[in-house]
Every structure is written in structure tokens, then in C-alpha cells.
Amino acid sequence: MFTYNPPAHDKLTILHHDDSILIVDKPSGLLSVPGRGPDKQDCMISRVQKTFPQALIVHRLDMATSGILVLALDRETHRLLSKQFQERQITKQYIAVVVGKIDNAIGVIDKPMICDWPNRPKQIIDMQQGKAAQTHYEVLSYSVDDNTSRLLLTPITGRTHQLRLHCQYIGHPILGDQLYGDNNAREMAQRLLLHASGVRFNHPISQQVIDIKTNIPF
Fold this sequence. Notes:
Number of helices: 4
Number of strands: 12
Shape: globular
CATH class of one domain: Alpha Beta
Radius of gyration: 17 Å
CATH architecture of one domain: 2-Layer Sandwich
Helix content: 10-25%
CATH superfamily of one domain: Pseudouridine synthase
Order of helices and strands: EEHEEHEEEEEEHHEE
Oligomer: single chain
């Protein structure tokens, strides 16, 4: 049975803050929003709202994924940012460490996805009923010592568990992935080695280009 054990809260890691937008660095193991039950109320948005009570969630990261999370500080900004996400005007980048050596240094994984309802929240590839899902990848390095590759992943669409499922589908699961990894992948890392490392978009109020990068914790 799953036991939620979020990391201890010291202080927020703020990457950007203005009158309309707050961008923070979410730790691995912390929910983006509250889950079901009193034991799952500690999450990124609840921690943020202790300092910024007006903050509104715009998008989410998986509990196991760390990295950049964009929040709005008023309802109009929330509406405009949500529209940018829906229209794919926001570029997000992730760093992942996966099992094995990938033959092609650059490529696109284009496989439709659908929820595996008997095993939700798990997702599966479904060529007939799945929703379109595309992920661009670039191999940054390969380690002979442990047979792993470091990837730069750029999701073109934003499906639930998209990066995790796409990496697993091509035979290179992300290290530490307890849901999609095989025994080898699950045992090779204490956490999911997936980090939201960059985001770029036009500020919905000022129209200034916001380009944020964060350090990789693995």
C-alpha cells in the first residue's frame, strides 16, 4: 500500500516572482495539488499559499517529478496562462536519465495515449483510441559504466505521464520509475530521474519573454 511521505519543507525555491506570476522549483516526492485523504494535503500549492495565498495552479508535475512549476497570482493571469498551455505556446524542457543506449541522437516519439482505466492512473499506448502525443528527444550523453543515457525531452503535447510512457515504449525507461520501469530501472535510482529543467513563454501581461532554467538535482 502506498504511503505518502513528502520531503520536509524548509523554504520555497523561487525561480521568478513578479506581480502576476510565480515560478517555483518543486521537489521530487511532493504532490502538485492535494490528493484524496487528510494525509495527502501537504503539496506544492498548499506550501506556496502559505506565503502567496492568492496563488493559483496552472499546470501540474507528477509527484515523483521535480522541477519548474508555473503559478498565477491573479485570476486573469491564470486564464491567460492556461490558454497558452492549451494552445502549446509554452515550451517546457525536461532532463531524464534512462536505461540503455539510444541509437538515434535526436528523434520524435509520436505515439497516441489513453488512460489504462483498470490500472489508473497508468497510461498506455493505443493506436486506435489514444489521444495524439509527441515528444522530442535529444541524447546529451551516454555512460558506459552503468549503461544509461541522459536525455533532453521536449513534450510537444502535454498528456499525463507522457514522457515516462514514451521512454518506456521505446525500450528506455526512466531510472527510478516505479510505474513504467522494469525491475532494473526501478532499482537503479532512489527517485524518478525526471526533472522539469526549463520553461519559456511570453508573459501574459507584459509580453516580456520569460526564459527560466533550473539546476538538475541528479
